[in-house]
Design brief:
heterotrimer, A alpha/beta (about 170), B alpha/beta (about 325), C alpha/beta (about 425), A: about 170 residues, 7 strands, globular, B: about 325 residues, alpha/beta, four-stranded parallel β-sheet, 11 helices, disordered N terminus
């Protein structure tokens, strides 16, 4: 259980951007995973001044729990509005947990082409990995109970904040 | 003493589970609005998949989809085949119109046989209204609750994926259904597409649904389904937002229901001049294959208001959505 | 002692014998296969010593049911089903395989039915050879073997001229002709009432005009030939109105209705329930109301089962491909009495439409508990509830839309000619 108040997500965005900035190349593009990762990618693109539009991925069609849970009730169209082939991509998500979502997103990206490299940037890493996946960029290592869930929210003004929910 | 005989149990549609989840897609009748919206929203995401180099997602990997076409339709079968393959399913096409039934095997014998081959989904086309219901009920009765049925057209009854792709098309071009006037023109009596469209349009709150055709091609009591009936194409087209032209089957033109194809075209064929009576931004739809010069003039079919080829593209995405939602429920 | 000579007393029941205007607690005495007496409680005919006494406390004691239409594939099992349903006498339509178009076939059916010793069978002979609607059948020869009427069952006589001649020939001998009032050309391809339900389900429709056009034609042929006509299985309000008008003109015309049409409508088709595939089709609630009204006021002289047992595999097909017909002989009596309760029709009227009225139509004994009449009697428990299903139905056909439904009222014993041919074992 988290005892202290949740950190300021806006400050974390700035911190994450600062970590990414040294590695940016001319052809780096961001791909956010719906929905928190997509907001985050948009913000990072602004802060980092990346030209390429942001790609958005909904991994619903690639999830490995489809057999148990069925199709997600709200599937958003995946949109990668740039050439993936040979590009440096940074996959962006709000929280890294089991790694299964990242796996699904990687699979989907490869159906668009063969990128030169893919890095992973997240705001929070809550451990509990079930696959050999790690984030290259992360600003918050956090421990949560199994029944808890960290949710990134966006208000009308576009400000990001954390909320604690239950799974 | 209570007379139980006088109160027959209300039959529940076998396509919805006890919790309201979609188990089979047999008809658009009785589909809740949110179920239709979910299918259309999901289809929108699949539409994007079809634009990629790799037009395939791994959702139905390992699943076996059997295309059971008791009535030939290469065109419809192909769209289901493409949809299933883009979901990574294994697709087995059975030309049952020639093989088993010719040997005297009953419909349900065929189903039992294919169940033993570990089918996960049946896509069924049959010449008799209600055949897919019989199959769905048989699967439930024999405890095969994991197998899904998609109706790919049964007799004159329903063609729900065509109805849903029509709804997708209308929503794509027109947005909300509330203020729309939709005219369905032609052989409504024999049209499973018309029935599926009417139920879906009503569920989505379409402003006005019109049926246009000669009395020999309109079923009795159409008004009971919330449809305005017109026997004059000019009146029926006036101020429409959407015009759905139906295919006139060759066998209807032999003189029994209509005197001739040319008289039909004069009275009920859609020409550029008649289309002008609809709203200027009206779209023209057709489930295909078209009879040019019979129900539709080539100038309309190839004109700027026709969205007939888009319907085909949307159809793949809608069928992917239906199959993936069913397989996941 | 043989069963026929056994003296039986049925005591403490409520005897309903519309033919003699009786609806009262009475004891019934049977000797030599005939009704000996019907007496108030406590009385016994002089010198009557019962070999067997049946206690009918709480039960209805009715004349055996006379069913105007029951098909009997396999004969004995269906005759067992008949007596289990309280049917002691039935007319068998000629559309058997082969059709009843030769005297030898009729003679064999009658003999086999007699040997079975269950319900009494009155064959209806074929009007035309092979029911093909072309050449006349040997009506006089068929009548000599026991045919009570002539009919095409549900098949057509395509040429109106052929029909006229068949009616003229039947009229020569005053044979009644039973006509199924459906214009088969107008009904062609149809599988359900041409109404909202058929429009919604995409089922080819059978319009009401298929019935009214047929009735109008038959009425005029009846007027022209003077032949006694009985119309089998009405289905529509318009049809009932035409029959009522024709009867008011004094034409020798009668009509009946199948019991399922008193209870079901096309809404019961639900989602293609092929157990509701019947000929004529189930129509609307307004049609059902008119049929009920017509039966109550006597426009329709009788209610029958139109029993058509089908093998299970004949139902393993889509609605439109299913063979029409309902296995109904066991439900005729309880469903008719259910109609009377629901519609507020006197019990005696309902019993009359099941017993003496159809017997009079057939021109045979039956529907009669008067002294000297054949002792065809049913004991019926009006309160018993049961479920119609594969375990309870005797008929080989389980094709009833009431399958799985709870039915109120059940036959407990049936006597034919003073012999106990059915007694329910609980």
């Amino acid at each position: 259980m988290l005892s202290k108040p949740l950190p300021d997500a806006e400050a974390q965005v700035a911190e994450l951007a600062a970590k990414i900035r040294p590695d940016l190349t001319a052809d780096t593009a961001l791909v956010g995973i719906f929905s928190g990762g997509a907001w985050l990618a948009e913000r990072l693109r602004e802060v980092l001044g990346i030209d390429a539009p942001v790609g958005m991925i909904d991994v619903s069609f690639y999830r490995d729990d489809f057999g148990e849970k069925g199709l997600h009730p709200q599937v958003k169209p995946t949109s990668i509005p740039f050439e993936v082939e040979g590009r440096h991509l940074i996959l962006v998500d709000d929280v890294l947990y089991t790694g299964r979502t990242t796996r699904a997103a990687l699979n989907e990206i490869f159906d668009y082409g063969r990128p030169a490299a893919v890095d992973l940037a997240v705001l929070a890493d809550r451990g509990g990995r079930e696959l050999p996946i790690a984030a290259q960029y992360c600003v918050w290592d956090v421990e949560l109970d199994d029944g808890e869930e960290l949710i990134l929210e966006k208000d009308e003004g576009g400000t990001l904040s954390w909320k604690l929910g239950t799974l | 003493m209570a007379d139980l005989l006088s109160t027959p149990p209300t039959p529940a549609s076998p396509q919805l589970g006890a919790d309201g989840r979609l188990l089979h897609l047999l008809s658009t009748e009785g589909l809740p609005r949110q179920t239709i919206t979910h299918i259309l929203d999901t289809a929108k995401s699949f539409l994007e998949v079809s634009d990629r180099d790799v037009k395939k997602v791994p959702l139905l990997r390992g699943k076996s989809v059997f295309n059971l076409f008791f009535e030939n339709s290469t065109r419809t079968r192909t769209t289901f085949e493409i949809a299933a393959k883009r979901l990574s399913a294994d697709v087995i096409n059975l030309d049952v119109s020639r093989s088993s039934t010719a040997k005297g095997e009953t419909l349900l014998d065929t189903i039992d046989n294919l169940c033993s081959m570990h089918a996960d989904m049946f896509v069924v086309r049959h010449a008799t209204s209600g055949a897919p219901f019989l199959i769905a009920e048989h699967l439930a009765r024999t405890g095969r609750h994991d197998i899904r049925v998609v109706n790919a057209g049964d007799g004159r009854h329903a063609h729900p994926t065509q109805g849903l792709l029509d709804m997708y098309t209308i929503r794509h071009y027109k947005g909300d259904f509330a203020g729309l006037t939709v005219a369905i023109v032609g052989d409504i009596l024999h049209s499973r597409v018309a029935r599926s469209d009417i139920h879906a349009l009503r569920a989505l709150g379409c402003g006005e649904i019109r049926a246009v055709g000669p009395k020999t091609l309109l079923p009795a009591h159409l008004e009971a389904q919330g449809v305005k009936v017109f026997h004059n194409l000019e009146e029926g087209l006036k101020d429409c937002d959407v015009v759905i032209m139906l295919r006139l089957q060759n066998e209807r033109m032999d003189g029994a229901l209509l005197p001739s194809a040319s008289e039909y075209f004069k009275r009920f064929g859609l020409t550029p001049a008649k289309l002008k009576l609809a709203k200027p931004d009206a779209i023209v739809m057709h489930p295909g294959p078209m009879n040019r010069g019979i129900e539709i003039d080539s100038a309309v079919a190839d004109g700027p208001q026709a969205v007939i080829l888009d319907q085909v593209t949307f159809g793949i995405a809608v069928r992917m959505a239906v199959m993936s939602i069913l397989a996941g429920n | 002692m043989s069963q026929t000579t056994m003296k039986i007393a049925i005591k403490n029941g409520r005897v309903v014998d519309p033919r003699h205007g009786i609806d009262a607690p009475r004891d019934l005495f049977i000797a030599d296969g005939k009704i000996a007496a019907v007496l108030p409680a406590g009385q016994t005919p002089d010198g009557f010593a019962a070999d067997r006494t049946l206690d009918a406390a709480g039960q209805l004691v009715l004349p055996g049911v006379v069913d105007l239409a029951a098909r009997l594939p396999g004969l004995e099992p269906e005759l067992e089903a008949a007596v289990a349903g309280g049917v002691t006498r039935l007319a068998c339509p000629p559309d058997s395989d082969p059709p009843m178009d030769e005297p030898e076939l009729v003679e064999r059916l009658v003999r086999r039915a007699q040997d079975a010793g269950l319900a009494r069978v009155h064959p209806v002979g074929a009007l035309t050879q092979g029911l093909a609607g072309e050449k006349l059948a040997e009506m006089a020869g068929l009548a000599a073997e026991g045919c009570v009427a002539f009919s095409q069952a549900k098949r057509a006589v395509r040429e109106s001229q052929s029909l006229l001649r068949a009616l003229q020939y039947a009229a020569t001998f005053d044979f009644p002709v039973w006509c199924y009032p459906q214009n088969l050309s107008l009904a062609r391809g149809g599988v359900a009432h041409d109404g909202e339900v058929a429009a919604r389900l995409g089922l080819p429709g059978i319009p009401v005009v298929a019935e009214t056009v047929a009735i109008a034609q038959i009425v005029e042929l009846c007027r022209a030939t003077g032949v006694r006509i009985h119309l089998t299985r009405l289905s529509s309000a318009a049809g009932v109105a035409l029959v009522r008008a024709a009867k008011a003109q004094g034409l020798p015309l009668s009509a009946d209705v199948a019991v399922h049409h008193l209870h079901l409508t096309d809404e019961d088709i639900g989602f293609f329930n092929n157990l509701t595939r019947v000929d004529p089709p189930l129509r609307t609630a307004a049609d059902r109301a008119a049929l009920r009204e017509g039966l109550a006021d006597g426009t329709l002289a009788a209610v029958c089962s139109d029993h058509t047992p089908l093998a299970d595999d004949e139902r393993q097909v889509p609605f439109g491909e299913a063979t029409p017909g309902v296995s109904a002989v066991e439900l005729l009596l309880p469903l008719t009495l259910a109609w009377a309760r629901e519609a507020g029709v006197p019990l005696a009227t309902a019993v009359a439409r099941l017993t003496c009225d159809p017997a009079a139509l057939l021109g045979v004994a039956g529907g009669d508990l008067g002294a000297g009449a054949p002792a065809d009697v049913v004991l019926f428990d009006p309160e018993a509830t049961w479920t119609a299903d594969a375990d309870t139905l005797v008929s080989r056909g389980r094709n009833t839309p009431f399958l799985g439904r709870t039915v109120t009222g059940r036959t407990s014993a049936t006597l034919v000619g003073g012999r106990l041919v059915y007694a329910r074992q609980d």
